[in-house]
Amino acid sequence: RGADYGTGETGTGKTVVIDFSHPNIARPFGIHHLRSTVIGNALRKIHRALGYQVVGVNHLGDWGSQFAKLILAWTRWGDGELTEAVTVHELLDLYVRIHEEIEDNHDAEREAADWFRRLEAGDPEARRMWEVCCKVSYKEFERVYERLGIGFESVAGESFYQDKMPDTLIRMEEKGLLQKSEGATIVDLSEWDMIPMLVRRSDEATLYATRDVSAAEYRWETYRFEKMLYVVDVAQTLHFRQLFKVLELMDYEWADRCEHVVFGRLRFKKGGMSTRRGKVIFLEDVLDRAVDLTRQIIDDKNPDLPNKEDVARDVGIGAIIFADLDSRRARDIVFDWDEILNFNGETGPYVQYTHARYRSVLRKYGKPVPPPDPDLSLLTEPETVAVVKRLAQFPEQIQSAADAGEPSLIASYLIDLCNEANRFYNAHRVVSEDEDLTRVRIALVYAITVVLANGLGLLGMKAPEEM
Ligand code: ARG
């Protein structure tokens, strides 16, 4: 079945909504959003392989009081009119500066709140400045998405729900869920041992949680999903427990189709990329670094490789993706450059390298692959049968990965396959005098390359022909 091998139909006629990546506007794309992006994208591909209609949503952080702060900062320190000439880094500096200011200046805090009121009321000047921030940031995000080879079916950030929140609040009111507390509006969740969900502040400003209730309603109305996955880090566990409980209290029978796909923290072990408090690591710097280090390895080991730049990119970025996906997502992970780029370790480069190596065996064989009518009964040795069995498990692995929302099942499957394939390859000559045996072994090698390439594709990685 070639490129189709592993795909199934269990998702046919069903829709899955995957809320992932969701970086915050006016901030650079930080490393903390990498995990959501990579895990979400893999889940998107895995579900698609099973026939699901997949709606990958980028729930951008593009609404909230932080924009009012930014606008205030610009009115104080910005140079002339805010235009798209501003960079994300400048915006970040302004943001940090206004935060410090607000901390010990209540007037500034009031002014910021005032700007947010204007923004929520649709004041043209506030809206214009907000739009500039969004455009400038999104352009930067797109560059990152392109490098990672990632797309979305829907980019509907928090601001998309502005006009939907009033009705959401009315529905909550009708269900008798809303209470006043010190001027703010809350949903009391003490019965379930949770702090209240804050849905409107005393100054009428809406909140992240309110937007999430509206977003869930909107997505149900629009997509009628079989399941909705929120790929968000473990720090927001409480938020999602509150959200799902509130949806249940609103009597939405689909509330239990929502799932928080938790993941742990990511940090770097050594070699730069560590961060001082309050400083973000820029994802683009991490990607550049991975590609640079890979280029050095190629220069060292295989300087005559054609398409060196492309391979350095595919392998460098693949290493980052794989390192993010190869352990259970709930675990914290530590990035160690030496480890994740090790071509012999349990890494992305190792899987890609194994694939490239067998592709080269097939090229050297020189005849069309797969060879016609191989005699499969000749695959008898234990290490060979082990490979065959592993290949046969691929479709089940995709199903389990989708059911558990766990791309790591594919990653560890690929490592097992590589190890077993190499055991087979080291024990037997693929091309020999015996023509029948050669043909069936070539068929096996071919099958290995197909599964490796398909599996890498599910994780969002490329499978270079040569490395
Ligand atoms: N932008 C948010 C953050 O960076 C994550 C959004 C997650 N998705 C959601 N529907 N709440 O923390």
Secondary-structure element order, N to C = EHEHHHHHEEEHEHEEHHEHHHHHH
Proportion of helical residues: 40-55%
> Termini separation (Å)?
26 Å
Query: Strands of the largest sheet, in order across it?
Result: 2-1-6-7
Spans of at least 5 consecutive residues with low confidence? 271-278
Percent of residues in beta strands: 5-15%
- Count of DSSP E strands? 9
Described by strand count, sense and barrel closure, the largest sheet is: 4 strands, parallel
Main structural class? alpha/beta
- The pLDDT mean sits at 94
Output the number of helix runs: 16
Q: Name the bound molecules.
A: arginine
For the CA atoms, what is the radius of gyration? 26 Å
**Looking at the structure, what is the overall shape?**
elongated
Describe the structure.
- The chain is of the alpha/beta class and 467 residues long.
- Helix content is 54%, strand content 9%.
- The chain has helices at residues 32-49, 65-77, 88-103, 106-120, 124-148, 165-174, 208-223, 237-249, 283-301, 308-325, 337-340, 348-365, 382-392, 394-404, 408-427, 435-459, and strands spanning 15-19, 53-57, 178-181, 184-187, 197-200, 227-233, 258-263, 266-268, 333-335.
- The strands form three sheets. The protein has a four-stranded parallel sheet with strand order 2-1-6-7, with helices on both faces.
- α15 (408-427) packs antiparallel against α16.
- It is elongated, with a radius of gyration of 26 Å.
- The two termini are 26 Å apart.
- Bound molecules: arginine.
- The site of arginine has 9 residues, from α7 and β6.
- Arginine binds next to α7 and β6.
